[in-house]
Structures are given as C-alpha cells and as structure tokens.
C-alpha cells in the first residue's frame, strides 16, 4: 500500500574509503541498487546517501575552481571514491 521514495533518505557520513565500501556492499547486496552521486537503494527500497566527510569539505572550499573540479568528479560516480575526489581537488 505504501512505498518508499527518495524524498526520504538516510545520510551516512564516512571517514574512510573502507567505511564507504563496506556500507555500500552491505546495502546494495541482495537486491539493492546503486544510484548516482553516493546514493543507493537498499533491498527494502529505502534510499541512502553514503558520503565521505571530505566531500563536504572540498565542496565548501573557498577556491571555486577546486570545489567545481570536485563536483564534476563526483557527478561521474555512483559510489564515491575518495581518491578520485582528492585527485580532482589537487588537480587545480
């Protein structure tokens, strides 16, 4: 009768790539689905955002070129890869 929508999601801030990878694997197993930009749906249809804390720091950087570079990299990802974020941040 009722279904879940992405209008309600759980946000999990992660400190390490291992934490991101572990949560991602558990929540997408057994019928979960990857989505873009750190979002996923678990097997029950709940939406989750698995986000490294470093992403927020980089996106709030005072240098707009750095934050834009990180945003561009993030928009290409499903699961967030912290090394790719760092590479994008330092590439500018």
Topology:
Elements lengths: L8 E6 L2 H12 L4 E2 L4 E3 L5 E6 H7 L4 H11 L7 H9 L2
Parallel strand pairs: 1-4
Antiparallel strand pairs: 2-3, 3-4
CATH architecture: Roll
CATH superfamily: 2,3-Dihydroxybiphenyl 1,2-Dioxygenase, domain 1
Give the beta-strand count.
Answer: 4
Proportion in β-strands: 15-25%
The overall pLDDT, averaged over residues, is 96
Structural class: alpha+beta
Please, how many helices? 4
Q: In the residues, how many domains can be counted?
A: 1
For the largest beta-sheet, the strand count, sense and barrel status come to: 4 strands, mixed
If you compute it from the alpha carbons, what radius of gyration comes out, rounded to the nearest whole angstrom?
14 Å
**DSSP helix fraction:** 40-55%
Following the backbone from N to C, one meets helices and strands in this order, namely EHEEEHHH
* CATH fold annotation: 2,3-Dihydroxybiphenyl 1,2-Dioxygenase, domain 1
In CATH, what is the class?
A: Alpha Beta
Unreliable stretches (pLDDT < 50, length at least 5) are: none
Sum up the overall morphology in one term.
Answer: elongated
Main β-sheet, spatial strand arrangement: 1-4-3-2
First-to-last CA distance: 50 Å
């Amino acid at each position: 009768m009722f279904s879940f929508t992405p209008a309600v999601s759980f946000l999990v801030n992660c400190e390490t790539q291992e934490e991101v990878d572990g949560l991602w694997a558990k929540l997408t197993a057994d019928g979960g689905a990857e989505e873009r930009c750190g979002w996923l749906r678990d097997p029950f249809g709940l939406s989750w955002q698995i986000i490294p804390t470093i992403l927020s720091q980089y996106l709030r950087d005072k240098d707009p070129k750095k934050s834009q570079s990180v945003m561009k990299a993030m928009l290409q990802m499903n699961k967030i890869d912290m090394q790719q974020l760092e590479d994008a941040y330092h590439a500018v």
